[in-house]
Amino acid sequence: MNNDGIVWEVLNNQFCSFKVKTDLGNLCRHPYNLTGRCNRKECPLANSRYATVRETNGRMYLCLKTAERAHMPAKQWEKIELPRNYAQAVAIIEENMQYWPNWMINVCKQRLTKITQYLIRMRKLKLKNKHTLVPIKKKLERREKSREIRAEAAARLDQSIEKELLERLRSKAYGDQPLNVNEEVWREILEGDAVEAESDVTTEDELEEENEYEMGENGKELMHAFVSDDSDNEDDGSGGDMEDLLDISDISSAEDDDESVEEDVSDDELESDNDSSSSSSDEDRPTKSKRSADSHPRQKPSKRSKKHGPRVEIEYETEAPTRDNMLTNW
Amino acid sequence: MSFSASEIKNKAKRGEIYEKQRIAKGKAKRQRRQELKKEEQDNPELREARLRENVPKTQENTREFDEAVIGEADEEVAQDEEEDEFASYFNGQAPKVLITTTPNAGKKTTSFVKELVSVVPNLEYVKRGKKFELQQIIEFCKRREYTDLVVVTEDHKEPTHVTLIHLPEGPTAHFRLTRITGGKEISGHARATSHFPELILNQFSTRLGHTVGRMFASLFPQVPEFQGRQVVTFHNQRDFIFFRRHRYVFRNSKRVDLQEIGPRFTLRLRWLQKGLYDPVNGEYEWAYKADLETSRRRVFL
């Protein structure tokens, strides 16, 4: 029915939709073409005896053209699946193409080699992570940049760190003989405790107890303490917010900022005297400081009160004059 | 008859009157303040009362109610945290941390990494080759019993992201890294010593925040060397995590002085994955979306 010679005459001299003409020669787009060249010998349409190796979905097939089924183009290619094993696949090709032209067997084997190699490479690449480019969004960056600066100002990092360190020191988180404190300062703190215990200032005492961390056996616990987050409220008196705080009725005070600076300074001095008392007043408020939490389950504030236990046995009791000094200063 | 200065058409005259009004206003204010000050000097209770009432509104104290915020001594949370991935660290396992970068890291990135190496004890820097995927590196680290893996990612030769992977079971956190200042760029900076630093984790209030805070904590040795007087701070404010390192000295019982050692940088959580790093099948515990940012009074950490 199909005469190869006539088919080639038509394809070559009239029209072939698979033909691509280039400067170097004619090429063929037909998917079953063995080499991709367009000539009489390698044309899949004009040869009733033709074979090729193809790959679909990661599987390789040896495709053999069967002349008997030429009238059913969809079924005319006999497909034989080739195993993944290269040697076995070669054996199958040799078996099925026993009396075929040598050049065709060779080219089929070459195609088999090429396909095996690219399948191996594909599988390897699939195992690797794909690198995706994640855009850095300019608008988000810009917005976050300004918010970050404002957040940093609100954080008052230095003050909050200082506060936390002092709290640790006062709550004896550094142990009984701390290595990071000057001896004099440590004595001062111990004396402060004694004065407190004697004068029985209840509010101060409560404040201390609230702040006190129960110590772990060797100071492990304190390192991962999370700190309450309303530092803003507690730092009331120190500096920057004086302007706002002093304005009771008049909120828009931007006009005479320069004049208010001097006053702020004097107010600060005043404030520093009242520091301790104002901090004790914090206790009255139902603050969110209750929100403070530890990474460790923080144990309940220790019940060992300052009037009992080791505090009584400390030897500074003899140093009467300094204690008096402290009392008056308090 | 009262009239407002803005009705005056003569510009010079209008300006003049505005100026007068401004000065008068300032004067009145100053006077009021002086009176207040005098009054309060006589009886300080007034001042206390005023300060107590006059709390300025901030984003922090008008924060939206959030169920995830953990109250003090929350037993459920405490129990959960006893059994989470960081439990082994908090039970005394020493941290062993590896840090690496993306392949072909630039100078800025490597110098940032070197700064980090000086901050975190037991931190080991390994140069990243092209050969291995991050997931393979995680496996290597697990085999060598590292407890954490830090990867610094760069873009246009600038470090932009930090991925923190807790081993062997996760979680994995990915942060945006901004505003890096090296220690030497800070004027009047102190020098670091090799003592183990103290750690301050400020304001990590929610469950997510606690997870992130515990992640940071588990990078550092459990017992600090106090004689070094070095303190490392992770301060969370409005979801920005500020990193600082200082040397401190207690001047007296009320005053402590700080000297910054550096570096400083800011982190912002982009996502937190439950297990180890897995870009394809990973389960995201939390991830940043633009939709989440509908209010400034809502924070997640």
Automatic annotation (TrEMBL), chain A:
Q: Identify the InterPro entries for this entry.
A: Mak16, Ribosomal_eL28/Mak16
Give the GO cellular component terms, alphabetically.
nucleolus; preribosome, large subunit precursor
Q: Which Gene3D superfamilies is this protein grouped with?
A: 3.30.390.110
Q: Where is the composition biased (Basic and acidic residues)?
A: 282-297
Note whether Signal occurs among the keywords.
Answer: no
Region Disordered: start-end pairs: 194-213, 228-330
Its predominant location is nucleus
User: A GO BP term, please?
Assistant: maturation of 5.8S rRNA
Q: Where is the Ribosomal eL28/Mak16 domain?
A: 6-118
> Known Pfam families for this protein?
Mak16, Ribosomal_L28e
Q: Where is the composition biased (Acidic residues)?
A: 229-274
- List UniProt keywords, sorted A-Z: Nucleus
**Statement: the UniProt record of this protein carries the keyword Nuclease:** no
Biased composition, Basic residues: where in the chain?
298-309
Compartments reported by the entry: Nucleus
Family membership noted in the UniProt record: Belongs to the MAK16 family.
Record protein name field: Protein MAK16
Which organism is this protein's natural source? Coemansia brasiliensis
Which gene name does the record give? mak16
Automatic annotation (TrEMBL), chain B:
One Pfam family in the UniProt entry: Brix
Q: Which residues form the Brix domain?
A: 95-278
Which GO cellular component does the record give, naming just one?
A: nucleolus
Q: An example of a Gene Ontology BP annotation on this entry? A: maturation of 5.8S rRNA
Q: Where is the composition biased (Basic residues)?
A: 23-32
The segments labelled Disordered in the record are 1-63
Family matches, as SMART domains: Brix
GO molecular function annotations of the record: rRNA primary transcript binding
Protein name per UniProt: Ribosome production factor 1
What organism does this protein naturally occur in? Coemansia brasiliensis
